[in-house]
Amino acid sequence: MSIGMNHPCHSDYSFIPIIFYEDRNFQGRHHECMSDCADLHPYFNRCNSIRVESGCFMVYDRPHYLGHQYFLRRGEYSDNQRLIGINDCIRSCRMIPTHRGSYKIRLYERPDMGGQMQEISDDCPNVQDRLRMSDINSCNVVDGHWLLYDQPNYRGRTYYLRPGEYRRYSDWGGASPRIGSLRRITDFN
User: Fold this and answer.
1) Half-sphere exposure of 154 (CA within 13 A, CB side)
2) Structure confidence by residue, pLDDT tens digits, 54-81
3) 1-15 tens-digit pLDDT
4) Architecture of domain 18-96
5) 44 vs 16: CA distance, rounded Å
6) How many CB atoms lie within 10 A of CB 130?
7) Where along the chain do its domains lie?
């Protein structure tokens, strides 16, 4: 059973970029989503597989884009637990818009854009080695969309940042100011 087109996660397009399935291997009830959805719970109780037909998405284990964040690009995720380490509790999703321009992020060692500032315009697999900073307490995403990771080499918990100011690490959902690596979101195929 799929959900109709007249709910908050849909617009009037015939192509659906992301489909959530209650069971593994794309089985059971499913929910088709075209855009950001702050609360997926009314549409399904559990999610064990996901198909991303187009673009990139962040999915969250809590409503309103809170909790653990997981980055998904176009592809099939037949078993969420095994393939991306997420349990069956997907409660919100955010579509990442395509960006065709430069990338720039300013990282600050203190809250409220204070202390030492480093500006980055490319991927950084190891923040400590490259910037001599391990704690990022605030940042300003000037251009593009970025992923922060709490460990080097794009590992560990992931945080999605879109353009704007993040005055404290909790603004991007961080549990601590420790950031190990960061990368631009450039691959939308």
Assistant:
1) 12
2) 999 999 999 999 999 999 999 999 998 8
3) 343 333 445 444 456
4) Sandwich (2.60)
5) 17
6) 12
7) 18-96, 104-184
Fold of 104-184: Gamma-B Crystallin; domain 1 (2.60.20)
Fold match flag (18-96 vs 104-184): yes
pLDDT of the residue at 189: 55
Do 161 and 185 form a contact (C-beta atoms < 8 A)?
A: no
Residue 61 to residue 79: CA distance in whole angstroms: 16
Cα 20 to Cα 15: distance, rounded to the nearest angstrom? 14
State both tokens at 59. Answer: 């999915």
Amino acid at 7: H
* pTM greater than 0.85 (yes/no): yes
What is the residue-wise DSSP string for the chain? Answer: ----SSSTT--S-S--SEEEEEEGGGEEEEEEE-S-BS--TTT-S---EEEEEEEEEEEEEETTTEEEEEEEEEEEES-HHHHH---S---EEEEEPP--S--EEEEEEETTTEEEEEEE-S-BS-HHHHHS--B--EEEEEES-EEEEEETTTEEEEEEE-SEEESSGGGGT-SSSB--EEEE-----
Q: Rounded mean pLDDT of 83-87?
A: 81
Q: Name the residue with tokens 């251009």.
A: 143
Instruction: Give the model confidence (pLDDT) of 123-146 as tens digits.
Output: 999 999 999 988 999 999 999 999
146 neighbors 103 (Cβ within 8 angstroms): yes
